[in-house]
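Hi support team,

I submitted a single chain yesterday and got back a structure, but I'm not sure I'm reading the token output correctly. Could someone confirm the output below corresponds to the sequence I sent? I've pasted both exactly as they appear in my results page.

Thanks,
R.
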Amino acid sequence: MTTNNKYLFYVTLSYSFSVLRPIEQELQKRGHQVAWFIPDGAEAEAFIDAADNRLLDMKAVKQYNSDAVLAPGNYIPDFFPGVKVQVFHGFDSGKKNKFNIRGFFDLYCTQGPNITEAFNAINDGTCEVVETGWAKLDPLFTEHADTQSYRSDKPLIFYGPTFSPKLTSTYDLYEQIKHLSVNKEWHWIVKLHPKATAEEIAMFKALESDNLRFLETGNLIPLLQASDVLLSDTSSILAEFALQNKPVVAYKNRRPESWMINFSEAEQLEQQLSYALSAEQQLLQNIEQHCDAIHPYRDGQSSERVVNAIDDLIARGTGHLKSKPLNLVRRLKMRKKLKYYRWK
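Hi R., thanks for writing in. Yes, this is the structure output for that exact sequence:
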């Protein structure tokens, strides 16, 4: 007999929606219930749909009594009912502390062999690690209804930088992008990170023209599909784009590899983009090899594998897992953030 479980999505940033929507569709197909919790004032609030079942406070969360809580972020409230599941918000991009068992999750649904091996190597017995593929990418392998509206008869470059002040390219590349958007027969899409500063947003919004579109959206799939080349820095979006066997250009990448075109002088931007637009066969082979390591799944069924793994853990329970570390400071911070001062 099939059990209809209650799922809760914990969301703070808008990039979470593109990870969770495919899972939501799979859950609804199976007759499971879905609810959302977004802390007051979180950046993601502007992207919730009116039809979504949003729980507004801790009382509602406790009454809902979820069987599983999913988060694409690094932390999850330990006092929410249900098994805690990490579904990831990006690939390993070389940033610090990417691989870390933080003592909050019962299950890590990993994207591919490289991340699975890394988490298995540090698993302390407090969680399970199951390779499922990344739900966010399920729609990538079927053309989105909006993709055509972004396509261009000219080369289309998607600029998607990271937010970290030490790693972002926004200030270094601004003048070059401004120049190329005026003087080069290329079209641009600019989508900044949800944590971008107000100054960065204002800078790039001011560049809007017939050749450059500045977008604020939680769904990158149509942008990835429509664009010919991605320009970024040290961001997991590089890997997402490359999964389409398309070239990526990275500025001062923290961990440059053979599947990307990396450069370190802003004045080289035009040259590197031109090279990417006429990518050589060896580069495309390097991209394919990398993609097989990070996400070998091209069937669009990662959400199905994620839900299978979660439903299985719900059915078995978590009694076999070791006790998690206290993490007192982080737990207190989470309670203060959500104005919940009970231990459970």
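A quick pointer for reading it: The two ends are 31 Å apart (CA to CA). Let us know if anything else looks off.

Best,
Support desk
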